Amino acid sequence: MRIDIITVLPELLKSPFEASILKRAIEKGLVEVHLHNLRDFALGNYNQVDDYQFGGGAGMVLMIEPIDKCISELMKHRDYDEVIYMTPDGTTLNQGMSNHLSLKKNIIILCGHYKGVDQRVRDKFITKEISIGDYVLSGGELAAAVLCDSIIRLLPGVLNDETSALTDTFQDNLLAPPVYTRPSEYKGMKVPEVLLSGNFPKIEQWREEEALKRTEERRPDLLK
Ligand code: 6GU
């Protein structure tokens, strides 16, 4: 998979890909992530990428021309399955969307900033608009990092047995059950007996029950 991210703040998106699972996925060649500084496609001597909005009002808007130049350049070299715009008024991200996107070959992610982008960018280029929740971030960069993490960890070969995505919360519309590690007793607090029993069918049954209980208590909406 190849992910091209267009942003006015590439610095903000470097470190998420330089540690742990995402770093290893890139090193293994399972994913390529390319950051593109919108300013490299800017206009005039001032390297302008944003401007005041027509009709008046506070806040700058990312201009269509630098974005058009950047996307058109990328599209010269390969076909893209999706051009995603990160925006708080997009569809809220969920596990199903990440599963779906993890099957794509090439995607572009455009990070919004300030008051957003010229509507004509959205009309002409964008195939999906994604939000990561009902709160406002200063820009789409951190949201893009969240989206990339949720996609890349699903790519075959990225996770090993210990970190398998199959038992994740949300993977079957259930929250994950509680987990414990050594010691089996700490300051009087005991690990549930069944987990120490070695009876694996029973352990599996306990985990299913706990997952269901936790989901009923915390996220009954997932069970509907
Ligand atoms: Cl994708 N962008 C911004 N700026 N804020 C957000 C968001 C995205 N998702 C939730 N809040």
TrEMBL record:
GO biological process: methylation
Pfam families in the record: tRNA_m1G_MT
RNA-binding recorded as keyword: no
tRNA methyltransferase TRMD/TRM10-type domain location: 1-224
Sites where the protein binds S-adenosyl-L-methionine: 112, 132-137
InterPro entries per record: Alpha/beta_knot_MTases (IPR029028), tRNA_m1G_MeTrfase_C_sf (IPR023148), tRNA_m1G_MeTrfase_TrmD (IPR002649), tRNA_m1G_MTases_N (IPR029026), tRNA_MeTrfase_TRMD/TRM10 (IPR016009)
Gene3D superfamilies membership: 3.40.1280.10, tRNA(m1g37)methyltransferase, domain 2 (1.10.1270.20)
Signal peptide extent: none
Catalysed reactions, as listed in the record: guanosine(37) in tRNA + S-adenosyl-L-methionine = N(1)-methylguanosine(37) in tRNA + S-adenosyl-L-homocysteine + H(+)
Name of the protein in question: tRNA (guanine-N(1)-)-methyltransferase
Native source species: Croceitalea vernalis
